[in-house]
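[Q] Does anyone have a clean structure-token version of this?
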Amino acid sequence: MADGKGHAYHLAIALSLGQLVSLLITATGLASSIVAREGIDAPTSQTFCNYVLVGVFYGCLFLGRGEKLQMPWYYYCLLAFIDVEANYAVVKAYQYTSLTSVMLLDCCTIPCVFLLTWLFLKTKYNAGQFFGAGICVVGLVLVILSDVHSKDRVEGSVPILGDMLVILGSILYAVTNVSEEFLVKKVDFIELMAFLGSFGALISACQLIILERHELKSIHWAASSVLPFITYALSLFFFYTLAPLLLKISGSAMLNLSLLTSDMWAAAIRVFLYHQKVDWLYFIAFGAVAIGLVIYSTCDDDNGESVCFKHLQNDDLHRDAYLLVASTDIEDGGKQESEETLASEICNAKDANSSIH
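[A] Here you go.
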């Protein structure tokens, strides 16, 4: 009973956190659309403000603790570079292709995340999780079909170039998501954010000086242009703060599936804020994505050996027990079992011991 309540609590936290980060992404999209209507084309400058906020806030926390680096600095530098270019590629794509194409091709992140986590993090997915992910994608396809038949749909100027930029950005997003999932489970969260923000700000500053300095000089800075920049930076700051928590709880796949609902939240903003009409397919799509997320989360059965080994890695006492069993096994016959098998034996022994007491 306690395990059931714990699983339900974990599920509720993961789903709620997923929708919160989805709303934050929706806010960044709304701010970007306002910036575009102001005639401003400076994608790197927008993300630069976010990286500065992340770097300063978490950098101060990291320095205040006076701890040593748990991971070499060049890993964070490479991660920040990939993250900056992923943001730049997708934002830049809006100038060349349609919104529908960006939405469709941005889904490339999902299969890339599944593949990368399976290859490098050894994450195992079951049929139920794939089924839930498929329903989520079907829901997004319904949104795209609605946009295709929309009368106010605007085509891009160079669709092929825009589509290639979206695909590139999606692959880079997958790399950053999986890398952050690995790092957030291995190193301190504050260290990760401090160096991601600091290196991201440095790389963005160099890039905007090279690519956007003339655009920034030509901007007439007024409240109508400054406020969207601030909104974008703050929304992305909180996204960068909360996304690693979701990565640690449920992984990269859950994060990217949750972000699919951002298109539905955007539709809600169109209805309630701008009083625009949306196609009825939007509501069916939102329901499909919600159902898919619940199915994916409830079918996430990380238990058995992997869970026991995960607890061992985070508990000094259990780690000592693991080393003792491993060394004893080697001395007796030289036969080495896998870490997962040893971890399972220790967990079973622990459960047996608990039942005796």
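[Q] Thanks! Anything notable?
[A] Residues 303-343, 349-357 have pLDDT under 50 and may be disordered.
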